[in-house]
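[Meeting: bench + compute handoff]

Bench side (C.D.) handed over the final construct sequence. Compute side (W.E.) agreed to return the predicted structure before the next meeting so the bench team could plan truncations. Sequence as handed over:
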Amino acid sequence: MHSHHPPTLSPLCRAATAGSALLLVVGTAAAPAAADAAPGGRSTLTVAVAQQVDSFNPFTAQLAVTTNILSHIYDPLVTNDQETANPAPALAESWDTSEDGLTWTFHLRDDVTFSDGEPLTSDDVVWTFTTIMENESAAIANGSYVAGFEEVTAPDDHTVVVELAEPQATMESLTVPIVPRHVWEPIVESEGDAFAEYPADGDALPSVGSGPFVLTSHERGRSITLQANPDHWNGAPGFDDLVFRYYPEKDAAVEALRSGEVSFVYELTAAQADALSEASDIAVNFADGKRFQAFTVNPGAVTQDGEEFGDGHPALADRTLRRAIVMAIDNQEIVDKAHGGRATAAGGYIPARYADFHWSLEGAEAVLAFDPDSANAMLDEAGYEMGDDGVRVSPDGDRLELRMHVHQDRPDNVSAGKIIVERLADIGIEVENLTVDPGVLSDALYAAEYDLIFTGWTVNPDPDYVFGIHTCDALPTEPGTMQGDAYFCNEEYDELYAEQLQEYDRAARAEIIHGLQRILYEEAVVNVMTYPDIREAYRTDQIQEGTLLTQPAEGGNIWGQDGYWAFWAARPVEGGPGSGPAAGGVSTGVWVGVGAVALVLVAGGAFWLFRRRATAEDRE
């Protein structure tokens, strides 16, 4: 047996409404206030967010904003250490593997309770994984983690055994939210095939979890409120309330930070970050990027059964044209002009922050490096004739006029879009620059009614997920059900993907992952342009210096961590603005009780489920 005992954690270390969210409670056991809260008041850490959540259902939520919030409500078996970002224990204190790597035994903590007072046992873990394995509707967000599981069993209350069909390299990255069986089993049984759409009209969404915070309210388009769980096994959070307040425009969020209305803002533009660096009572954090900015090309959308749909430009099925488009764009120009120099020119799918898995374009491998002259020559040779108006026509007679969808809520994307329009004009391609709301962009992506579309992903320390979304199995089963951000299917790619997932040796696995990136690069369907730096800011008169932890400790980020470290460890400044009464909050003692806590979303007596699809730019 191989035993794994990661270091212990440092002690510091699509539901929506047009109206309001009401909390239904059973029980009123009192709970102590968090440390450093103002006497008689409640301390509140407020985060400015731009995107609406897609779902509070942990089985289906995919948007980055939602998964970040849910990581504070539900604990996984395994997390990532705050200081190093390496795999670390969460609900599982340690784990063992068999010599052949096919049996994994997880040893659970014996001191974990859910927020309704019920103990968390191995039965909850087994039920969570088994439900994802057996219910397609429950596998939307985390199905890739259990794809190789044969059986999950519980020899006792604090031991979980996973039997694998094949070795699976992601076994130390099981960040699947573990839910209480006693709450969710009745829901799954009653909803059946409709579970992917849960919650629906009139349904209650349970917020019972084992994490450091509890979801207590959601006002659509306004705010989401979490309250501290004083009985969390890793210690109570420093703030009583964690509020996520909506600001669709980043400039408005920045002004709210300046005025003290919010405590923390992320995804700043370079200009905003530089300006805030000079402001009093505000600190700016810069970190290496975890995400990439890209645009995908519609090569012709099909379902897994081969059904064609959408209205992508037919010429984009030609790899030569797609490659010429990539060669016409200078990624360094986008870094300099769109990001103000605060990004890294990209090519590979994995940001440079993850050194082992990062693949850089060097020498002979940089076959699609910026070279507009060669791009023009390629198109000439392939029969794309230049028209008198400077726009080419395909060999089939189709004028190269393409639509490009760009997020209007991301200034760096807007600037990059303008650059792309100019550069593609240099090779005879006319671009209609559609700078649109994220929801409009999302609808176009899932309907395949686009030609070029801005995308991007936040990459986890283990990159399996972002490669899994480009396998043939990730193609939609029917129009509108795509799991990824590109209609891509490649047999060689699928073989390499399966190979990397079975490789436990990190160096050997990295080489395979480099090969996956090479295929994506050369096929020119997913075209990575930059790795934007992380730029975020917070109020130093609301959050004690040194308590808003970054991950990793040196040069790391605050928002989008793999875990809950930053907002859990943060402590209010005594007597500061963040230590006053929480607007719209419910007292700490209200939600902890003998019964289940449920969040009911009401809008004039009727519930409206927000189901607009996530864009890849917003996802994990």
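W.E. noted at the follow-up: The longest strand covers residues 149-156. C.D. will use this when planning the next construct.
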